[in-house]
Amino acid sequence: MIIFTAYFLFSTMLSIEELAYISNVIDGKFTLQIGSFLYLPLGGYLVALILYKESGLLGMFIMSILMTLYYEIEMPLLVTFSFINVVGPLITLIIFKVLNVSNFENLCDLRISILVFLALFAAMLNSSMKFIALFIGDSLFAGTINPLEFLQSYLVGDFLGALTFMLMSIWVIRGFRLDRLSKNH
Question: What pLDDT is recorded for position 73?
């Protein structure tokens, strides 16, 4: 649990704007997008829900609020985005279980195709819910942000970050022989 928490905190620090700055330097010119192109916490939420089920929802929500405070956005939007960060992966896993895609009993036994599909579906769900919250809702940022750039950066960043975090988590669990963490009893 301590290793996973430290890993989650480390990925959170990497994914906020510093990594967005690094990843947005393309062809020698700097272009700041709305979201990070490697949003690792989405993968952290997925892994935490796979490993610990719903028992960590409150902690994940509090962590999401603390992470989002860094961006200094308005409070209702901050709470909405934090709620989406936690509920989006939960809905994704529920849909996967209802459709019998996987039962998620052992994180290390999941096939790469399931991880890719899981990351893609979670990214689409999270990005679309944040898009709706920002552009349909009553936000001050909605008029200053290009909707296409927003969706593009969030979708790519959520997908790449979720897939990277899940693969790295499996590598860490296998590497440190922490297989007991990945099996739900």
Answer: 65
Class of 2-182 per CATH?
A: mainly alpha
Q: 70 or 27, which is more confident?
A: 70
Residue 77 pLDDT more than 90? no
Domain ranges of the chain: 2-182
The pLDDT, as a whole number, for residue 147 is 79
Amino acid at residue number 92: T
Which residue's entry shows tokens 């290390």?
108
Return the axis-axis angle of helices 41-52 and 75-98, rounded to nearest 10°.
50
| Angstrom distances, CA of residue 100 to CA of 94, 96, 112 | 10, 6, 16
Q: Residue 14's closest CA among 157, 113, 121?
A: 157
Report residue 15 CA to chain centroid gap: 10
| DSSP alpha helix (H) spans, the chain | 2-15, 17-23, 41-52, 57-68, 75-98, 112-131, 147-175, 179-182
Residue 167's pLDDT band, with cuts at 50, 70 and 90, is very high
